[in-house]
Amino acid sequence: MKTIKKLTLLIALLFTATNLAAQIEGASEKRSGSFYSLFGVGFPTDNNNPREYGLGISGVSLDNMDSNSLQNPAMWGKNVFTTASSGFNLSKYTASNSTSTNVNALLEAGYFQFTFPILREKLGMSASMYSVTRSNYRFVTSDSTSLSADNVLGFASDIRGAGGISKLEIGFGWNINKYLSVGYAPSLAFVSETNSQDVFFSNTSYLVSNLDSKITGTALSHRFGALFTFQKLFTDKDRLSFGATANLPFTIDAEEKVTVSKQIGGQNEEVLLRETDNGKISLPVELNAGLTYYPSSLVNFSMEGLYEQWGDFESTFSSNEEMSMMSDRIKAGFGGEYHPYRTNSSKFLSNFRYSGGVSYDSGHLTIENQDINTLWFSAGLGIISPRSNSSVDLSIRYGLRGTTNNNLIREKIWAFNLSVNLSELMFFRQKLN
């Protein structure tokens, strides 16, 4: 059902504008994300904290011992305090093709991470839960069919999907010496994706049709990280960090269950449409690398890149046509950060950390010979606790994704991200007498 549905939507998208117009009639906002999360197992999730978003980077080289980060397991061995971090993301998508415009809004929880220094600044542990891909889309289409010369039946379809792949991860970081740290993080990866289609008819003698499919499954996943630190390169106070991570490819053993809702005896009953399908979903390798240079304690600049081999993606539950749309993803970002609070100034604007950056993402989809790329502009603000290493981080980003060529969809995205990072504020160190 999922394959047929996606091919139908793709044809409607590429060759007509009426479906999109029906969806967005009245320019109403819906709780939905990017249209392009429709394909595969959803859109890849970056899982950055607002500080990294503000810089426009992945964060694998952003060495900060006072707070935690998901991006590089090697950093977890350098932590001084126990930390906890979580937040949320609010995004607004303005999608348009050559004839219509649609506005979607989506509020969702971000990752959760807890880090604990087993041996302070030597060996640390991280426990976290975060998403790898996320599917969140909704389309309302309308059409009609002639039952006879004087009998036309109108119908509308509400097509939506949610879910994706997530990871429950426990990992370790080891700070070998002042030049090198390494880390390893095994995880349980699991898919939970629901796709639904409700069909409504203009003639009340035709009952509403409800069709649902759910894909579930699990697998083990592994990732590794390294961080190299070089000091006093050009001055007595500068520092350079080089970070790299590798997420190994993994395959999920999954199953798809398809049910249809029918009214039986005046009540809605779920009926298994067919036997449960078993299959596999193969996720590609992901490589991250980057540099962060600290000319002083007040300023740092970062340049990082990401590569994901989505051309190797395979899924029993996706058609060959859909898998042929997958292409290797490359993302590059550059940003800078200023820390005026370290000057001990009493001025109000010196109480915050400021950042800005830009990034380009080639995307993991190629549709009608068009790469679905994204250009992001970002800015960030860190609110630092004066009494501890805790902080509240905010970022705001503006992105341009896709194209209107060949009647595809172009998305203008405003994204707001917030995280709370607790360390000494909540987890006090015991003082010895």
Structure description:
The chain is mainly beta and 433 residues long. It has one domain: Outer membrane protein transport protein (OMPP1/FadL/TodX) (Porin), CATH 2.40.160.60. It is built from 4 helices and 22 strands. It has helices at residues 2-15, 18-23, 50-55, 320-324; strands at residues 29-31, 43-44, 83-96, 101-119, 123-148, 151-175, 180-201, 209-231, 239-247, 250-264, 267-272, 277-283, 286-294, 299-308, 314-315, 329-338, 352-361, 366-367, 370-371, 374-384, 391-402, 410-422. The strands form 2 sheets. A 14-stranded antiparallel barrel has the order 3-4-5-6-7-8-9-13-14-16-17-20-21-22. The chain is elongated, with a radius of gyration of 24 Å. It starts with a helix and ends in an 11-residue tail after the last strand.
Topology of helices and strands:
Blueprint: H1 2-15, H2 18-23, E1 29-31, E2 43-44, H3 50-55, E3 83-96, E4 101-119, E5 123-148, E6 151-175, E7 180-201, E8 209-231, E9 239-247, E10 250-264, E11 267-272, E12 277-283, E13 286-294, E14 299-308, E15 314-315, H4 320-324, E16 329-338, E17 352-361, E18 366-367, E19 370-371, E20 374-384, E21 391-402, E22 410-422
Parallel strand pairs: 1-4
Antiparallel strand pairs: 2-5, 3-4, 3-22, 4-5, 5-6, 6-7, 7-8, 8-9, 8-10, 9-13, 10-11, 10-12, 12-15, 13-14, 14-16, 16-17, 17-20, 18-19, 20-21, 21-22
